[in-house]
Design brief:
With 214 residues, this protein is an alpha+beta fold. 38% of the residues lie in helices and 15% in strands.
């Protein structure tokens, strides 16, 4: 894909996040890896007003290029791309139910087998740190170890994927799980699946949608 096409896809992803109501207003941000860095939504500009030229380019050394400042959260985008060669896109949202759990300091345990869609036996909640800081980036990286999603205490969620479409789809799944877990907590104490069962689920997920070997 051309750089222009990738810039357009980033904007389309941000707009779709609002349409799906996993993000609202000017909160949240989206990025995609490029050959020598990444492209990320600009700081403080509504998605509806963003043009391809407004998308900021940032090198892996942290140098921004373009007429607008990158998202204030560019650090965790940069650090995730540096640490995770498998990641091609990142979505950060302040979705309602994920943020509700994050404000309680709760991750999402194995209350449902679909928790494994995020790559592990649970979805962790990172420790709190001020937005836009290196401390927040460090906390996010720790929570994302071995995972493709995490919550951020008193903040929101981060989801990573190999593509923008994949990251967005996972963000929708995580928000649905957050809502289901929150609703379960209103009724009682959920039954959690065992580590052994989650190992089985993770192994099945590793083969899901792939052709059978001959």
């Amino acid at each position: 894909m051309s750089e222009l096409g990738l810039r357009q896809q980033i904007i389309a992803t941000a707009l779709r996040m609002n349409e799906l109501r996993i993000n609202r207003g000017r909160s949240g941000n989206v990025s995609a890896r490029t050959g020598d860095g990444f492209l990320v939504t600009p700081s403080g500009l509504p998605s509806e007003e963003t043009t391809p030229a407004d998308i900021a380019a940032v090198t892996l050394a942290g140098h921004a290029i373009g007429p607008r400042q990158p998202s204030s959260e560019w650090r965790f985008h940069r650090d995730i791309y540096v640490a995770r060669g498998d990641v091609g896109a990142i979505v950060h949202t302040h979705s309602t139910f994920a943020t509700t759990l994050a404000c309680l300091g709760r991750g999402i345990p194995a209350f449902h087998y679909m928790v494994a869609v995020a790559g592990g036996k649970d979805i962790r909640c990172a420790e709190y740190a001020t937005f836009g800081t290196q401390a927040l980036s460090d906390c996010a990286l720790a929570a994302l170890e071995g995972r493709n999603a995490c919550l951020l205490a008193n903040h929101g969620m981060i989801v990573v994927g190999d593509t923008l479409a994949g990251a967005l789809a996972l963000a929708v799944e995580v928000e649905a799980l957050a809502e289901q877990y929150w609703r379960t907590l209103q009724t009682g104490t959920p039954n959690l699946l065992s580590d052994a069962e989650m190992d089985v689920v993770l192994e099945k997920f590793s083969r899901y949608g792939k052709p059978e070997s001959s």
